[in-house]
Every structure is written in C-alpha cells, then in structure tokens.
Amino acid sequence: MAEPPSPRTLAWLNAAGPEDAARGLDGLYEHSPWIVEAAVRARPAAGWRSLAGFKHTLVRTVDEAPRAAQLALIRAHPELAGKAALAGELTAESTGEQARAGLDQCSPAEFAAVQSLNAAYNARFGWPFILAVRGPRGLGLPRQEILATLERRLAAQPAQELAECLRNIHRIAEIRLNDKFGVQPRLGEAAWDACEALAAYSDTPWAERGELTATYLSPAHRACAKALQAQMQAAGCDEVGLDAVGNVVGLWRGSQPGAPRLLSGSHYDTVRNAGKYDGRLGIVVPMVALAALRRQGRRLPFDVEVIGFAEEEGQRYRATFLGSGALVGAFDPAWLDQTDAEGVTMREAMQAAGLPGTLESIAALRRDPAHYMGFVEVHIEQGPVLHGLGLPLGVVRSINGSVRAVVELQGVASHAGTTPMGSRHDAAAAAAELLLALEQRAAAVPDLVGTVGQLEVPGGSVNVVPGRCRFTLDIRATTDAVRDACYDDTLATLAAVCERRGLGHRVTPSLRAPAAPCDPVWQARWAKAVEALGLPVHTLPSGAGHDAMKLHEALPQAMLFVRGQNGGISHNPLESTTADDMQLAVEAFLNLLEQLAPEETR
Fold it and tell me: What's its top-level EC category (predicted)?
C-alpha cells in the first residue's frame, strides 16, 4: 500500500479503498475505523466534491448504524481529565485536545469537580461525557466552561444526551479531519471573530454578569454600531455610515454604476441575555465574503449593500422591525412618541444618539425597488432541524406567518374539597384540554406549529377549583391559509369545550403577520450555492420572524440558514455555531455572488 499524502487530499480520499482510507485517517474516530470504512463504501460514484461532503457521509454512517455500535463509539472515548489521562493512556489526538483546553493544568479543586461530575454522569447515562473541547473556534474551551457544560448536561434526558454526545464526536472528528487535510476555515474564523468582537458591547447590568444585551440606541448598542462601521471599512466597503434610524450601512461599489444592486444584512440589536449570532451572523457573513473578493482584487459588476439593522427584536420599544421597516416605508409615525421603561420617547432617544428623530429623515430611507435585485439574509437557524440532520446549511422556503391571541376563560371558583368532579366549571382543566387539542391539530399538518406559551390562573389557590384561566395562542405556518385554518379550528374547539364545561370565554387577537414565501428564483440560487459546496440541499421553513419579512414587502427575498449548536437553541447564551459552518456560509454567499456576475467578470 502506498503511503497517503501529507496532508491528505480529496483526490487520495476518492481513490482509496475502505481499509486504506481507514489507515490513512487513523484516529479520526476513537478506536472506530469502521466508520471511515463504511463511509468509503458509500462513496458517491463520482467521488466527494468536497471535504464537507465527506464529513456529511461520516455523520450519516453513524446515524444509520445500530444503537449498539453508537454506544460502543461513545464508550471508546476517554473521560475528560480521567484515569486514562492521568495514566498517559490517551490517544495522541485526545491528549492534544485535552491539553489545548488546559485539562492537564486543572487545580486540585477543578480536578476534584471534574472527577465528581464524571462519576455522576456515568452513573446516570452509562457512558462517558463527550465534549469537543477544542470548541467552535478550534482554540480550546476554558476549563470553567467545560465544567459548566458537564453540569448542565447532567440534567438532560438519555436520548437527548446520546444524540448530543454523537454530535460532539462528529465535531471532534471534523477538527481532526481538518488537521489531517491541512484545512483551516479562515473565512469562518474571521466571521466568528467578528461576532465575538461585537459581543463585547452589552448593556448594564447584563455586562456586569457577563451576559449580552444590546437594546435599541443604548450606549452598548451605539458602541456596537461604531464597531460594525469599523468592520465594514476594514472589509473594503467604499461607503459606510449610520442612517436616520441607526442602521449601519455599508456600500461595496461594483464596476458598473447604475446596475441594480444586491441588498443583504440582518439586525445587530439583541434580546436580553442573548446569544452572539442571532442577526449579527447575517451582517458579518457578507462582509467577510466581500473582504475575500477585495483580497483577490475582484470587483463585481453590481453594488452590494450590507445593512446592520438597528432594531428587530422590539425590546426597548414596541416597534419590531423598526430598522428594516424604514427601508420599505413601514415606519409607524406613532413610534416616535412611544416611551421606554424609563419614560424616554423614541424621538428623544434618537436625538440623544445624534440622529434627527424626524419623520422626514426616516421617510427618506425608503428604498426604490427598481434599484435592487433582491434581498438575501444569512441567519443562524434558531432551531434543531439542521442540527438533527447533521447538515451545516439549509435553504429557507418561507418565513412563517403567525397569528397570536390572548384567551381568558371564566368558570366558577369553588372549594377543591367539597365540589364533586361532575359539578365543576374548572377553567384550568378547560385550558389544558384546549392546549392538547392545539398540539394534536398542529402536529397533523406539515410546517404548522401551535403554542400556548403563557398559562396562568389569576388569583389561584391550592385548595380552590380555578374559576379563571388566561393563556396565549401562537399559531404559525408557511402559508396564511394553513395558519388561519388552524386558528379557526382552535377557536371552534374552544367554544365547544367551554359549552360542554359551562364556561365563558373571551379571545383578544394581538398579532397577525402574513407569511413571507421566499422567492423561487432566489431560493434556487441559494440551493445551487449550497450544492456547489458538495453538500445535500435541504429546504425548511423559518418559524421565527426576520428582517427578510419586511423586505419581502418590496423586494424578492430568500434566506440561508446556518446550523446552530447545543440543540439549535437561540435567544440564549448557549446559542452557538462553529467556524467550519460559518466558513461554508461565507463560501455559499460567494457562490451566490458568482451566479449573479456575468462570465466575463469572473
């Protein structure tokens, strides 16, 4: 057998037999060469087009393996800072990874904590705790973060934790594979670093707790805007500025003045105690892509306008999509007189930030659709779908339309001990019945979701049959017709339940937002951009709202989702993605730009 090249190459991988590939990639998965062997046997007839494609085949191989093989793979891994590490019995790969995370430098107290948590974890699940200790950037996680993660995951359910262990094993293998192939995701690292830099600006008191919060026009929000402008300038934007609502606008000039331009971006405000990537990833990905073109000395035949929208979350004022709404003429004049929790009007906040705070200046921000090709937004998924499929990217089909309402049920408050079950008018029991009915109704239709997010018994007592119950409804779907049908059926079920139980009810609608189907042409462009990376194309709806929903009112729009870590959690400090997935997002964005450029300009 010929020695494999060092570093390994895709050509070698596509030519190697199963055993040769396993030998050449020894140590990729701890003591489990069968994974590489099985993946090579499943190699596409034309070979893998990219290392990312091979990584996905590895994930599929493990996903399709029997549960016994999955458990054996997990149990082949050593405990962190465990007995094997102390005895020097780790593989070279594990030794280096644990050392990079500083686990060989634990203090006596840290070591004791790790040993105690390891024992508790193994007793609960029957396998060792697995964590990719080199982390999302590949630099190594702090020891305290490792300890906190171990403690947090102790509370997980076994099925969830087994899946999380396998996902971490794949992340470990991804980093090891990069090392063997001499690959470094430099564009993804640049995006990761940019998000990290923006996360340095946080409101009081969250900053003092090490948490991220940046609400509209707060000092932290304004500092973040300034940092964004600096990042845009460094990326090579020809014009960078702050507009009348606080949007950060960067313009990258093309070679053909007057050609319709591409618009991209997302929001840089956050929810309270947020993650670092919601919104902001969609600003830095196009910036990193444009910076790459600049280094190549490239100019596209069209302008690219990147916008960091100042507000999308509605945290300080009840004015969701304020930043993107201004571009489509959807800024409500009444917003200027809204007050925040401290009694500061939006107009006052704008003027304190050096913005005009006038309707005239805001109206001037409206874009002429004739000057734009469309709007594209890259966003962390904010959900578990891509995470569960082992896919780094997904193409969004539609942004769900939503309807919300507050429901109040009126029954009879009576003694819990003396009121027979057949004589009760229990408002909470009726709410529970409706909640389950909504769950079943939504689960029966693809891409439809229904949620009761708030549920309370006002003035309730442990020994009183609930006489009142208040709850919220949130129903979303990719089309308004599907959403409205579920809403109507839910209200009909509500009426029937209340009549049968002898209750009154009142429904107060609170929101109705139309669905925003992504433009088919732009969807196809995203799909082609992902396919060019050698990855399967998966389409999915977005259940969350995005700035693309507002731009949809004036321009064709389409979105690309990037996989999140930690179960895809978002609006949470655990929100995360990896430099490798960000790399693929930047490359997909570059592929999209290439599709828009005539052949002679490439």
Answer: lyase
Backbone angles phi, psi at 320, to 5 degrees: -60, 145
| Residue 364 backbone phi and psi in degrees, to 5 | -70, -10
d(CA 394, CA 381): 8
- Composition of the chain by helix, strand, coil, percent to 5: 45, 15, 40
Residues 382 and 571 sit within 8 Å (Cβ to Cβ): yes
Query: Nearest-CA neighbor of 388 among 588, 164, 151, 217?
Result: 164
pLDDT in tens, 318-356: 898 999 999 999 999 999 999 999 999 999 999 999 999
Contact predicate 585/374, CB 8 Å: no
Q: Can you give the pTM of this predicted structure? A: 0.93
What is the dihedral angle through the alpha carbons of 15, 19, 24, 27, rounded to the nearest 10 degrees?
A: 140
Sorted by where each starts, the structural domains of the chain and their CATH numbers stand as 10-181 (1.10.3330.10), 188-397+517-601 (3.40.630.10), 401-514 (3.30.70.360)
In tens, the pLDDT along 2-42 reads: 789 999 999 999 999 999 999 999 999 999 999 999 999 99
Q: Which two tokens stand for residue 332?
A: 């409500």
pLDDT in tens, 170-194: 999 999 999 999 999 999 999 999 9
The pair of structure tokens assigned to 486 is 């579920």
R_g of the chain computed on alpha carbons: 27
The residues near 355 (Cβ < 8 Å, ≥ 6 apart) are 217, 242, 244, 245, 246, 361
Residues 452, 455: Cα–Cα separation, whole Å: 7
**DSSP per position, 189-232:** HHHHHHHHHHTT---TTTGGGT-B---TTSHHHHHHHHHHHHHH
